[in-house]
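Bench notes, afternoon.
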Amino acid sequence: MHLYKKIISKLIKDNITISTTESCTGGLLAYNITKNKDSSKVYKGGYITYSNDLKVKDLNVKKTTLKNYGAVSKETAKEMVKGLFFKTRTNICISTTGIAGPGGGSKNKPVGLVYIGIQVNGKIEVLKKNFKGSRIEIQKKCVNSIFKYLSNSI
């Protein structure tokens, strides 16, 4: 059974709800959840907060966090996940923020740098990843790493 289907089946079996907020993955995570049969039983919804304005408006990410650390940071990923939980109250909340490329990178924040915020039953962990590849490859690798993480933690 494909990993994605396996995770969704486990969420359904255990009645574990999930929600997402995505920046660098642009909805790919939500798609890979909702393409599975019966995902509506556990997936409560998501946000694509691509702009900083929406991160602030929809998720209550602090402007000072964005100013001090940038959108692509551990701090922003954590605040995104906290804001998502405030809105959805799901058992699992996931945020993605990063630089998918091909441009937009810098020495300190290269293309492929991604932060993934994951809150499971109130405990938040932020994963820092450095993926290689094209824009879509980086986005897919980000989503795959989230499902791998979930397979080991739920």
